[in-house]
Design brief:
This protein is mainly β. The protein has 1 helix and 7 strands. The chain has one domain. The radius of gyration is 19 Å and the shape is globular. It starts with a strand and ends with a strand.
Length: about 150
């Protein structure tokens, strides 16, 4: 799950974390005999996405909360990890899900994000949904019980 400032995002149907690298071309006449490009990692970057059912009364952050975060233009703490509640809990607890403590088998991925897009979809005769996209601000850190 994805947590912002310690809160889950309400009615999430999908979360995605993507880590990518900007590559620098280091091709030269001494390597690859002119037939192959040579690449080197220049910068790392990361993004996260959350797809959700629209509601204003769910536990955790909702569309309006995310709107406020976006227009504030301020980075917020993000944690991508498992929820801490037991698997037998089927209904969200009051206040929303909480992040599971980092362990060797269940690490946390932690960093700061800004919201770079927020879209609301309300099709005729169907449930309204929204998607929020985050861009990492600085490093994404992997936390385990050891660190």
């Amino acid at each position: 799950m994805l947590f912002l400032g310690g809160k889950s995002i309400a009615f999430a149907t999908s979360h995605t974390l993507e880590i990518s690298a900007d590559m620098a071309d280091t091709s030269n006449k001494d390597e690859g005999a002119g037939d192959w490009a040579s690449q080197e990692v220049n910068l790392l970057n990361w993004t996260a996405t959350s797809e959700n059912l629209y509601s204003l009364d769910g536990e955790g952050d909702n569309f309006d909360d995310l709107f406020d975060i976006m227009v504030a233009k301020t980075p917020v703490d993000a944690v991508f990890c498992k929820k801490s509640q037991a698997d037998t809990v089927t209904n969200v607890p009051t206040g929303g899900w909480t992040a599971q403590a980092a362990s060797a088998t269940a690490p946390q991925y932690v960093g700061k994000v800004v919201i770079n897009s927020l879209s609301l979809n309300a099709p005729n005769g169907e449930y309204a949904t929204y998607t929020v996209n985050f861009t990492g601000v600085g490093a994404l850190q992997k936390k385990t019980a050891a660190n």
